[in-house]
């Protein structure tokens, strides 16, 4: 570049090899997009450039990924790509049909005496089928499709295939296909797949440790899960299960109850023994749900102040579904695993509402979501449909909030105090102290994300990484700040004799007393205590929070502004992994969101929670291609009376006080 020169002058300058005013390399847009898409490790950057890249089905293999020669081989009329796309239920049916097949081979029955004419006919048939022309040297490589050899081999292979498929089908995974990629599976589906794999291995003398195996399971599938666990036990294995589902807990031979509370208030073994013995442990919270007699649910559903209607909704196994949700109510969406609940509630509804609001329909990805393939989604991964009436049909909704169990942050810099916003008020409080004003400290000085006040050694992390040769790296407390994250000069500023690091080390309960006179801070702390998180430290790093804790932190943040009454809250199995007591507490707060004028839609499989909803939508009747349709809709009592619903019987028991 020659600044200020005309094109003619620039040509003369280049010929004379004069030094340019600026020299650099300019990357073309096409190359930048393709190189970035191929090499970036950031899902956010990949999402940004993916809007300039389109994908199409390969015209040669038509999306089957294999050569024509490989696809020319078929089994029962399916090439290997078509076979891999079949649901496990259908694959099992094919395997059973092949095992039971009694077709007679062309060559005749083994050992049968043949005359010359019959032998000649058999030889001709064998040659026509591609076999050898002489009896003494049979060619086993080229035989008829229904030859005895191939039938025997197919029967043996199909028997082994069926043996591996049956545990998966029993666990309610028959709707999955063989070619389904693991990143598209939920955590519950992955766990059940691993469990089915172990069952087919026929090992004994093994200790199996399972964390919430019932998560994501419809009550109908619980019996199959219990059958799998019993099978593992009967083979001589030991099964240790972390579980909150009362039906599963009742099946245990030995029960260990830990508590009595959470965090620092828990961690003690309250009981270890046969389940009946827990009835005498008064400290146990589990005891109330395990032995208390169930009571009928008597709650009058709210009257909606409008309806949010969707038309032609298509996503995964949902095909042009028409559905409506009552506004100002709590709606529970039920159905067996794979019926399309998450596709409707977590994916289609937020996307279509955002589109009606005139916002981007592309969900934001957090950095590190590397499992999402942005090119190989195709039409199967896109959402189609619309809100009837467009923006006018939203009934006053202005925002969509997803409250899930994903982490509130991926690094230790994100914590309870920063996520809820109360730390902003704490930093302003410290910046307003006389000592801070004399030193001209602003609020940013008390943030471990700002270089001015944080420890320069660990850069606000509180720990440093020590690299060990040939061994994994370890983390140790920072030798300069000793884990406080701040400079010594920052820690010299105190408020009521406590510095900023002391505040982050407080539990929510302690901070509630410490900041009792600070209205802005107290409001956030009160809500955190209200959702049962009083035991958490304010500075507790986000990666240390469980899924249920992260979900309640998000809920607490929303409860602070729930008075707006213009939000649609979307939750996907909010009680998964929660103790029954925590589920009841969560439900009380969801009812509070609705009482404030908001609309809540949740996917839920705990019938105790479903019975407390104002409106129920049951999807099914089956999973995969057999699901994706609305089977029943109405109040809990109306759905419980529907004879076509698989959920009805279990909901009916809860409403009647039977469990």
UniProtKB/TrEMBL annotation:
Protein name: UvrABC system protein A
PANTHER family assigned: UVRA PROTEIN, UVRABC SYSTEM PROTEIN A
GO CC annotations on file: cytoplasm
Keywords from the named record: ATP-binding, Cytoplasm, DNA damage, DNA excision, DNA repair, DNA-binding, Excision nuclease, Nucleotide-binding, Repeat
UniProt-annotated location(s): Cytoplasm
Start and end residues of each stretch annotated as Disordered: 125-144
Biological process according to GO: DNA repair
Cytoplasm found in the keyword field: yes
Family (UniProt): Belongs to the ABC transporter superfamily. UvrA family.
Membrane-traversing stretches: none
Domain ABC transporter: 308-646
């Amino acid at each position: 570049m020659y600044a200020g020169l005309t094109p003619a002058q620039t040509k003369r300058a280049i010929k004379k090899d004069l030094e340019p005013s600026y020299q650099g390399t300019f990357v073309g847009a096409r190359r930048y997009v393709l190189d970035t898409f191929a090499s970036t490790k950031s899902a956010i950057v990949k999402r940004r450039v993916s809007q300039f890249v389109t994908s199409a089905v390969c015209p040669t293999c038509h999306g089957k990924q294999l050569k024509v020669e490989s696809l020319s081989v078929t089994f029962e009329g399916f090439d290997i790509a078509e076979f891999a796309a079949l649901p496990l239920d259908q694959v099992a049916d094919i395997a059973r049909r092949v095992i039971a097949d009694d077709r007679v081979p062309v060559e005749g029955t083994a050992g049968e005496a043949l005359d010359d004419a019959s032998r000649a006919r058999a030889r001709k048939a064998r040659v026509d089928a591609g076999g050898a022309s002489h009896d003494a040297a049979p060619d086993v490589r080229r035989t008829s499709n229904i030859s005895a050899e191939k039938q025997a081999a197919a029967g043996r292979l199909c028997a082994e295939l069926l043996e591996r498929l049956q545990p998966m089908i029993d666990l309610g995974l028959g709707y999955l296909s063989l070619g389904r990629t693991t990143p598209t599976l939920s955590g519950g589906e992955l766990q059940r797949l691993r469990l089915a794999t172990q069952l087919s291995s026929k090992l004994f003398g093994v200790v199996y440790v399972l964390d919430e195996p019932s998560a994501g399971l419809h009550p109908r599938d619980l019996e199959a899960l219990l059958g799998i666990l019993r099978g593992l036990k009967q083979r001589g294995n030991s099964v240790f299960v972390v579980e909150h589902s009362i039906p599963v807990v009742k099946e245990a031979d030995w029960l260990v109850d830990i508590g009595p509370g959470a965090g620092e208030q828990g961690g003690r073994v309250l009981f270890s023994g046969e389940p009946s013995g827990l009835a005498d442990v008064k400290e146990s919270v589990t005891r109330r749900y395990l032995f208390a007699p169930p009571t009928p649910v008597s709650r009058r559903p709210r009257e909606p102040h409008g309806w949010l209607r969707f038309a032609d909704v298509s996503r995964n196994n949902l095909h042009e579904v028409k559905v409506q949700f009552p506004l100002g109510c709590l709606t529970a969406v039920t159905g067996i695993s794979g019926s399309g609940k998450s596709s409707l509630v977590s994916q289609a509804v937020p996307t279509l509402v955002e589109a009606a609001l005139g916002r981007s329909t592309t969900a934001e990805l957090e950095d590190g979501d590397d499992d999402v393939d942005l090119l190989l989604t195709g039409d199967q991964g896109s959402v189609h449909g619309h809100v009837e009436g467009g923006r006018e049909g939203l009934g006053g909704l202005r925002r969509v909030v997803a409250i899930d169990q994903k982490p509130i942050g991926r690094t230790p810099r994100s914590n309870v105090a920063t996520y809820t916003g109360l730390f902003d008020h704490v930093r302003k409080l410290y910046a307003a102290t006389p000592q801070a004003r004399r030193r001209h400290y602003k609020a940013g000085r008390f943030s471990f994300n700002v270089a001015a006040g944080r420890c320069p050694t660990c850069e606000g992390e509180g720990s440093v990484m020590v690299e060990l040769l040939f061994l994994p790296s370890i983390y140790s407390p920072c030798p300069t700040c000793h884990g406080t994250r701040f400079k010594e000069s920052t820690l010299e500023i105190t408020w009521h004799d406590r510095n900023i690091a002391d505040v982050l080390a407080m539990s929510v309960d302690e901070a509630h007393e410490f900041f009792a006179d600070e209205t802005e801070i107290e409001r956030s702390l009160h809500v955190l205590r209200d959702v049962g998180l009083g035991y958490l430290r304010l500075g507790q790093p986000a990666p240390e929070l469980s899924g249920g804790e992260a979900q309640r932190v998000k809920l607490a943040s929303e409860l602070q502004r729930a008075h707006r009454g213009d939000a649609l809250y979307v939750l996907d199995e909010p009680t998964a992994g929660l103790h029954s007591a925590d589920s009841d507490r969560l439900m009380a707060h969801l009812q509070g969101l609705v009482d404030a004028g908001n609309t809540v839609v949740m996917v839920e499989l705990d019938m105790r929670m479903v019975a407390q909803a104002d409106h129920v939508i049951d999807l099914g009747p089956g999973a995969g291609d057999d699901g994706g349709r609305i089977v029943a809709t109405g109040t809990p009592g109306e759905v419980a009376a529907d004879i076509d619903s698989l959920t009805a019987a279990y909901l009916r028991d809860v409403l009647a006080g039977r469990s």
